[in-house]
Amino acid sequence: MSSNRNVSGWIVTAAATGVNLILGLLYSWSVIKASLVSDWGWTNTQASLPYTVCVAMLAFMTIFGGRLQDKFGPRIIVLIGGLLFGACILASAFTKTPFTMLLTFGLISGIGMGFAYASTTPAAMKWFEARKKGLIAGIVVAGIGISSVYMSFLTNFLLKRYGTENTFLILGAIAIVALTAFSMIIRNPPAGYVPAQKVGKVAVAHATDLTWVEMIKTRPFILLWLTYLLSATAGLMLIGHIVSIVKVQTGSTNGFVMVMIFAAFNTGGRIAGGFLSDKLGRTNALLVVFLIQAVNMFLFSLLTTIPLLAIGIATAGLAYGALFALFPATTADFFGIKNLGVNYGVVFSSWGIAGIIGPLLAGRVADLTGNYHVSYIVAGIMLLFAALLVKWIRAPKTA
């Protein structure tokens, strides 16, 4: 079966983007973290741990969520994940210690987020032809980037007006209602569905469909996994500490504005990265992104004014956002579309490791030295190594 006007595909894409608009609450943690440090007396390391655990759980539960949505469809998995995510943000209002916050915002909401996130990009991409994979992936994951823009502003407003506890209650309620609504719209295409091609365009075949067991035995998977780990560390490090970085390097207490700048460029990077990779090729786009971010990290300690820091944060957001379109599209190119949910979940697990390394490295360095300079250097070296690895990334011979 084919479709000449892919209305259903665009509706699913819009709903998948809507899910990510809510899941992007995670990226406002830098604002919440500052409140935990100033109002509850937590250390930078303690306040970073719930975010770090949530990132790790998101990454690893994406594997299971992807497998489940491949088997049962995305609708029920988004619903389950959304209810877990929203309920545990709401429950965070009643926590008073770092350990209990790890269980609510960190562990359980991370599981829910992983389930919901795993069902968005694969479901949308299955409705479209191969040559549009990058663009569709970019649009869907842009939801999280856009979310950070308004979520940071909303979270900052709620914290100042209602306090930390009530902020968690309000955000949790919003997440439950919105994610339940979006889950009712998301679905896979029917069996036998073939996306229509533009008139005059030559069809681009998808790669041979590999299972995750077959995929992990290939060298391209290993290289993709490593480069994702190395490249995501810098962005995740900044996301968890932007407010603190602004205060340390400029003395400003309006770090939430920089969170919004990062989020805006993060969003643009996702769409631009997907579109350009469709035109230039995945590995060429990866190389450019890694080199730009590496240079940016090496210069970051010199950004001691608001305008300069804004440029650095914008560049970091642009490069980091591009990763979220490039890696799922590359995974589909190399290993096929049929098992994309679980396959990308396995690739995405590297992002979870980066989510542990980046925020904890930055938090520990800040507690010991009072600044983030060493963290920037380590992240820059990791990005250069990722750029070197790109040279050996090629599609499997079976594709």
Summarize the structure.
With about 400 residues, the chain is mainly alpha-helical.
In words, what does this structure look like?
There is one protein chain. This protein is mainly α and about 400 residues long. The protein has one domain: MFS general substrate transporter like domains (Growth Hormone, Chain: A, Up-down Bundle), CATH 1.20.1250.20. Helices cover about 75% and strands about 0% of the residues. The protein contains 15 helices and two strands. Strands 1-2 form a two-stranded parallel sheet. Helix 3 runs parallel beside helix 5 and helix 10 crosses helix 11. The longest helix has about 50 residues. The protein is globular. The protein starts with a strand and ends in a 10-residue tail after the last helix. The mean pLDDT is about 85.
**Main sheet: which strands, in order across?**
1-2
How many domains comprise the coordinates?
1
- Per CATH, the class reads Mainly Alpha
Strand content: under 5%
> Radius of gyration, Cα only, in angstroms?
20 Å
Number of helices: 15
* SS elements, strand count: 2
Query: Which CATH architecture is right?
Result: Up-down Bundle
